[in-house]
Design brief:
Blueprint lengths: L18 H12 L4 E8 L2 E7 L9 E2 L4 H14 L30 H5 L10 H5 L6 H5 L16 H15 L3 H10 L8 E2 L13 E3 L1 H12 L3 E2 L2 E2 L3 H7 L23 E2 L5 E5 L3 E6 L4 E7 L5 H11 L12 H12 L17 E7 L6 E8 L3 E8 L2 E9 L3 E5 L7 E11 L2 E7 L6 E9 L2 E8 L11 E5 L3
Helix pairs in contact: 1-10, 1-11, 2-6
């Protein structure tokens, strides 16, 4: 990252916050399961930042539905350029994709309805789009069933965001990333951006975008600046004001910060704040009244907990004037921030680890594992999983992380850092942190004579499930 794009740094005290208070907030955040990174800004300055290793500043993290807010900005730019209007009918953009049995309300669905998640669907329709046998999600969208008149009811719906992405592609003749590159991403210093696509090459829109924490922070700061970045108006303040304001009622939701109104792919929050957010706590939180921004990535089951800590601990302490410098408190905050880490596998007391190599033939199972091999050294455990498609090896360090890449668990290549520990003489635990994602997977191995039981568990469940126990017996040589 060049200095041209790096956000300026300051101390909390210079920007009206106590380093001691920020550290107390950070320690409370550290107790949640599991924060991945944070960057706190005030008055345009980064006043505190940290990454829970192996998460790191240069690593781009899955944003999940925080991606939606970038789609909103793309639509706003298209509006600014006169390419579309918010009340344009959606069918206008796809005349060759309409279904013969399309319900009549589709003709009344507008871009605004897509932006406000009020398409008329009863539930998110994205699953139906993904079942399209020809991979044509747009055509499949117009075959889904509507339960309500468009515009009448908020129902969170990633297919709406996908169609917004498809509209950009239809208008611009390029995918969403290509459209945003000169208009938003490159001005913010985001190069070589990655956004996952559907089988037809259209960016998924509702999820699939990947950014580093500071790239999220620059986006959020641009929003706080009402679309201005380094003296350049990237998007009109008029559109952004609508996008981050109350547009539709979502009070049927339960959590406090999910029932205060929805804008154009942005959520209204307590304390006159607004945010983009993604599953498990991927956040771009903007608090205009305090000139404050929080960018965060997480692996949280309870997303409300992150916001509640901000409201309860940081907001009451944010003063309007600079505070006297406190070098000792600042040093404490920075030392704690630099020590953050995802916990490693923890060994049992006085356990003598196994050494050498052993292989097990595995009983028939749903995940297709035929053989599991273990190779133990003093510092590293190598676990090789063999299927009919081939084999791959996870290397885990005893008392440390070892970095590798695997495709087996999530079916696509994922970078990971893995540690291992013997819990007792027969139980081995391996902790795998997939540090471009919120996920932490634990493998639990029990060795009983010639037999092996191999299980897994994850900190979160989203598109994957814990394996049923794999059982096997030692391979005869």
């Amino acid at each position: 990252m060049t200095t041209e794009f790096k956000l300026p740094r300051s101390t909390p005290e210079e920007q009206g916050l106590s380093s001691k208070v920020v550290e107390e907030w950070l320690r409370a955040l550290d107790q949640l399961r599991f924060p991945n990174s944070y960057m706190l800004l005030r008055n345009g300055f980064v006043i505190a930042e940290g990454w829970w290793a192996p998460h790191a500043p240069e690593v781009r993290h899955q944003l999940y539905s925080l991606s939606k807010s970038f789609v909103s900005v793309a639509i706003g730019m298209a509006v600014d350029e006169g390419r579309l209007k918010l009340d344009d009918p959606v069918v206008r953009f796809f005349p060759d994709k309409l279904s013969p049995d399309m319900q009549d309300p589709f003709k009344r669905m507008t871009v605004r309805h897509l932006l406000t998640m009020s398409t008329g669907h009863e539930t998110c329709a994205m699953g139906e789009l993904q079942k399209a046998p020809d991979g044509d999600y747009v055509r499949a969208f117009f075959s889904t069933r509507l339960a309500y008149e468009p515009g009448s009811k908020f129902v969170y719906n990633s297919s709406a965001t996908y169609i917004l992405s498809a509209i950009i592609s239809a208008l611009a003749g390029e995918n969403l990333v290509e459209y945003l590159n000169p208009r938003l991403l490159l001005p913010l210093g985001v190069e070589n951006a990655r956004w996952d696509s559907c089988p037809k090459g259209i960016s998924l829109g509702g999820w699939g975008f990947h950014l580093a924490t500071e790239e999220i922070a620059r986006f959020a700061q641009m929003l706080l600046n009402k679309g201005n970045w380094n003296g350049r108006q990237l998007i009109s303040a008029e559109y952004l004001e609508k996008a981050v304001s109350w547009q539709i009622d979502n009070s049927m939701n339960e959590n406090p910060d999910w029932k205060l109104g929805y804008g154009f792919q942005f959520w209204r929050s307590q304390h006159n704040a607004f945010r983009g957010d993604g599953a498990f706590g991927q956040y771009a939180v903007v608090i205009p009244d305090l000139n404050m921004v929080l960018a965060a990535t997480s692996g949280m089951g309870n997303m409300q907990s992150v916001l509640t800590l901000v409201w309860d601990m940081l907001l009451p302490a944010a003063g309007k004037k600079a505070l006297p410098e406190n070098p000792a408190a600042l040093d404490g905050l920075r030392r704690f921030s630099s020590s953050l880490h995802i916990p490693l596998a923890v060994p049992g007391d006085g356990v003598a680890p196994m050494t050498g190599s052993v292989t097990f033939d595995i009983e028939e199972n749903a995940v297709g594992v035929k053989r599991i091999g273990f190779d133990f050294s003093e510092n590293v455990c190598a676990v090789t999983l063999e299927t009919s498609a081939g084999q791959e090896t996870i290397r885990a360090g005893f008392g440390k992380n070892v970095f590798c890449e695997e495709t087996f668990y999530y079916k696509t290549p994922h970078k990971m850092a893995a540690s291992a520990a013997w819990k007792d003489k027969s139980r081995l635990e391996i902790v795998c942190c997939y540090f471009e994602t919120p996920f932490i997977v634990e493998f639990h191995c029990r060795f009983e004579g010639p037999s092996l039981t191999f299980e897994s568990s994850s900190n979160l469940q989203f598109g994957t499930t814990d394996w049923i126990p794999l059982r096997g017996v030692k391979t005869l040589r």
